[in-house]
Specification:
heterotrimer, A mainly alpha, B mainly alpha, C alpha/beta, A: mainly alpha, ABC transporter involved in vitamin B12 uptake, BtuC, 2 strands, about 75% helix, about 0% strand, globular, B: mainly alpha, two-stranded antiparallel sheet
Chain lengths: ~290, ~325, ~250
């Protein structure tokens, strides 16, 4: 009944979707790795970026893949400002306060979108959205393939940033040992803000990659962020390879789960994995201690 | 019982409201506010006194609502029994989540995450399971009799929810003055130090989450009786998780009246926003998000804390002087 | 002769590649003061964490009151009369001094009034009686150390593990707190203290164990240990014993 071909296609689609999940998770894990906070506002920021991409196309006629080059830097700036001027000062380093502030931001942003744009779901009608590439034995959607490639480009770019630039080294220093970095003269508040900005930019790029095949509404990001949390917890908080591998893995799980059990239960499966991982091995497969 | 006077005074004051307020709109506002205060009082026990911040209190609210609704609608159980069962059901869910999370040693952000996840799991299950009415929800039949916990007059509902809030306040006060409460607060302040002093932190936290869940579940049961309709988004939605945590944070975590004060402020702000800019969806939560950030930034101990600070400042500035140089040196 | 109150039998603890404690054995008799000294990083606090149940040993046993208590949780040990203080003081910052001490007192008194009265009594004994209503975060370092002691004392312990309780105190503060510690002993409480302040160790301790690089390298009376060549080398480096010896001789 179940042809291996169909299964293979489901798996490959899972991998392609998983790449975008990985990108969202990458942003989250970057923020956690450096600031040691769980950014509850991640989903709302994704929704905001989706709206930005949507209007970039609707009002300016900008293709999302091009708009990404404008939206990503803008999101970086937004993320930088949020951390520098709101989250940082409000939480004063207290773990619990940071949780609450990012939660507050999440609620604020999501509902600001709801208030401004209503809850109606919108989609973009792009010419290439339904085009497929013949991959030998399977037909793959063009946007998904582009996403897959783009995510790896972004991952490589980030890796280069981290290893080759001074800023990247400063980020790694702060992530590892904040006090020491501070004593060495690194402006920690600035680095925190940069890390947050990078995380937000990742999410913005993910939004632009998603929008051809996904929908836009104020809570669209939430579905993603809980998946991103699962990935980050599975792959290990603060671990970049963990986010990438975990993203691909979860993409496949979701694809197969949805295939066999239907979409809602597929989502449920992810949550269950999330809870199980949190309870049994919070540091995940690659991560450091919880 | 000197310690309970403030509660008695406040509750009595609230009880007089129906004597001079007859507008259904205002009474409805107050009923909803008190219901949120009850949910918040529940959160406050685990979060305020216990220091474990849950982002998924909807799990308890929704369970209370669904248990009582299902028992009444599908099994013809009496509404009051259903209410009790709902509270017990919520407490049971609290016990399960607590047992899993605290045994695993989850703290802080991880605990918040896992509670969020549990609430979402319940929401998804409720939105597809036949027993909860799946996407359609459950409608409790209109039956305006006291035996069915439904009342013609809004004022009676108001007094009912006030009574529940009063019970929650009294229980919280008892907690504050009990050994369990002292241990819970110690765990909040410093779990390791508490353990070194003989406090079984895991059991204490478990007790706190069960208590917390029961109180919030009561709010859920009340919701079902007052609005007569629930669905997955209402019962287990993030809106109630947020409002339950927002009210004590704004009012003052770990204080008796924090949740009540916070609920009044939050709901009033929501209404004010609505009056000014019209009834648009998302507006009230938007305001709540902004208020949460502002409170954490400028008054992290909430209104009660800010008032206490102001009081302390005024006392120091205008009334007291150091009793001796020793005290001044230590102070 | 009866078994000492606390017996640590060849305890080791490994953290990944690091052997923090290596086959350490020590014992502490009831109602006596025993000191655990050694250079920084020797593993003393790790050993305390193992004894008090915060860490499990990789190998070895802990016997307390004649019973094997290896791996038992801290709160269970506290209930059996083993109390500990922390090297970095950990007051319940938001509570008053009295309420801090009461948390310990509640272990032995169920009712609130009893626990508060016991807290007052212990507070007085430790010299905190005019600070009982202060919030803990407002205390000086010396007062916080007394608070640590008071909290532990309120649990009515038979064994008190003090982790560098004198650190950060100036000489007059040390002079004030030493008799308080000695008075516990007179009450029948056994004390094991990790200490760097040698003058206090000399005057308080009856028996001293020296831990270096996770291993017990010497034990005995304070003077015997102070003159032990291995101990001198552990603190001052290789060859130091000879130098000290020749300095004495010359």
């Amino acid at each position: 009944m179940l042809s291996p071909l169909i299964l293979a296609t489901a798996i490959i689609n899972g991998l392609l979707n998983g790449a975008v999940y990985a990108l969202v998770a990458l942003g989250l894990t970057l923020i956690y790795g450096v600031l040691h906070i769980i950014n509850f506002a991640h989903g709302a920021l994704l929704s905001a970026a989706l709206f930005a991409a949507f209007f970039a196309y609707q009002k300016l006629g900008l293709d999302p893949y091009l708009a990404a080059f404008a939206i990503a830097p803008a999101s970086f700036a937004l993320g930088y400002a949020l951390q520098r001027f709101i989250i940082g000062p409000a939480s004063a380093g207290d773990d619990r306060n940071m949780l609450l502030v990012t939660l507050g931001l999440a609620v604020l942003i999501e509902n600001a979108l709801l208030y401004a744009f209503r809850a109606d779901t919108r989609t973009l009608d792009l010419a290439y959205a339904f085009k497929t590439i013949n991959f030998g034995f399977a037909l793959l959607a063009v946007p998904r393939v582009i996403s897959f490639v783009a995510v790896f480009v972004v991952a490589v770019a980030l890796w280069l940033l981290m290893t080759l630039t001074d800023t990247g080294k400063a980020i790694r220093a702060v992530a590892r040992e904040k006090l020491g970095a501070e004593l060495a003269g690194i402006d920690v508040a600035h680095i925190y803000a940069i890390a947050f900005g990078l995380g937000t930019a990742c999410v913005a790029v993910a939004a632009c990659l998603l929008i051809p095949t996904y929908y836009v509404n104020p809570s669209a990001g939430n579905a993603f962020v809980l998946i991103a949390f699962t990935i980050v917890v599975l792959g290990g908080m603060g671990s970049v390879p963990g986010a990438l591998v975990g993203g691909l893995f979860i993409g496949v799980v979701e694809s197969l789960g949805g295939f066999f059990f239907g979409e809602s239960l597929g989502q449920l499966g992810i949550f269950v994995i999330f809870i199980v991982v949190l309870l049994l091995r919070p540091r995940g497969l690659f991560g450091a201690s919880a | 019982m000197k310690a309970f006077w403030p509660i008695a005074v406040v509750v009595a004051a609230f009880a007089t409201v129906p004597l001079f307020v007859h507008s259904n709109v205002v009474l409805n506002f107050l009923v909803v506010t008190l219901m949120i205060a009850l949910a918040g009082a529940g959160w406050n026990i685990l979060g305020g006194y216990g220091g474990q911040y849950s982002f998924g209190h909807a799990a308890f609210f929704g369970t209370g609502a669904y248990v009582t609704a299902i028992l009444q609608v599908r099994y013809g159980v009496n509404a009051w029994l259903g209410f009790a069962a709902g509270v017990a059901g919520g407490a049971a869910v609290g016990a399960v989540i607590g047992a899993l999370a605290f045994r695993a040693g989850l703290r802080s952000s991880y605990f918040a995450l896992v509670t969020l996840a549990f609430a979402e799991v319940l929401r998804i299950l409720a939105s597809v399971a036949p027993i909860t009415g799946a996407g359609v929800g459950i409608l409790i039949k209109l039956d305006l009799r006291a035996e069915a916990f439904q009342f013609q007059s809004r004022a009676v509902f108001y007094l009912a929810i006030l009574a529940l809030v009063a019970v929650a306040l009294v229980l919280t006060r008892l907690l504050e003055r009990s050994r369990f409460g002292a241990w819970l607060i110690a765990v909040r302040e410093n779990e390791d130090a508490a353990m070194a002093l003989g406090v079984d932190a895991t059991t204490v936290k478990l007790g706190a989450i069960v208590f917390s869940a029961a109180v919030t579940a009561a709010a859920g049961c009340f919701y079902a009786q007052y609005f007569l309709f629930i669905d997955a988004g209402i019962a287990y939605g993030t809106w109630i998780s947020i409002e339950a945590l927002l009210t004590p944070i704004i009012g003052g975590v770990g204080t008796i009246f924090g949740a009540l004060l916070g609920a009044l402020v939050v709901k009033s702000l929501g209404e004010a926003a609505r009056l000014v800019t019209g009834d648009a969806p998302g507006l009230d939560l938007m305001v709540y998000g902004a208020v949460l950030i502002l409170v954490i930034r400028f008054a992290p101990r909430g209104l009660v804390g800010a008032l206490a600070d102001a009081h302390g400042y005024l006392v120091r500035r205008f009334i007291a002087a150091p009793k001796s140089t020793a005290e001044a040196a230590h102070g | 002769m009866a078994e000492p109150l606390l017996v640590v039998e060849r305890v080791s603890r490994r953290f990944g590649g690091l052997l923090a404690v290596d086959g350490a054995s020590l014992s502490a008799p009831a109602a006596r003061i025993t000191a655990l000294i050694g250079p920084n990083g020797a593993g003393k606090t790790t050993l305390f964490a193992i004894i008090s149940g915060f860490l499990k040993p990789s190998t070895g046993r802990i016997r307390y009151g004649g019973e094997d208590v290896t791996g038992k949780k801290p709160h269970l040990l506290a209930r059996r009369g083993m109390a500990r203080t922390f090297q970095i003081v950990q007051p319940f910052a938001g509570l008053t001094v009295r309420d801090n001490i009461a948390v310990g007192a509640y272990l032995r008194h169920r009712a609130r009034t009893d626990a508060l009265m016991a807290a007052d009594a212990v507070g007085k004994e430790v010299g905190l009686d005019d600070l009982l209503d202060r919030p803990a975060y407002a205390l000086t370092v010396a007062a916080r150390k007394r608070l640590e002691l008071a909290r532990a004392l309120a649990t009515d312990p038979k064994l008190l593990l003090l982790d560098e309780v004198l650190a950060g105190l100036n000489p007059s503060e040390i002079r004030d707190i030493v008799p308080v510690i000695r008075s516990f002993c007179a009450r029948g409480i056994a004390i094991v203290m990790i200490e760097h302040v040698m003058q206090a160790v000399m005057s308080l301790a009856e028996h001293v164990f020296v831990l270096a690089e996770g291993r017990i390298i010497a034990e005995g009376s304070p003077t015997a240990v102070a003159n032990n060549a291995a101990v001198i080398e552990a603190y001052l480096g290789h060859g130091a014993a000879a130098k000290v010896g020749s300095a004495h001789a010359g």
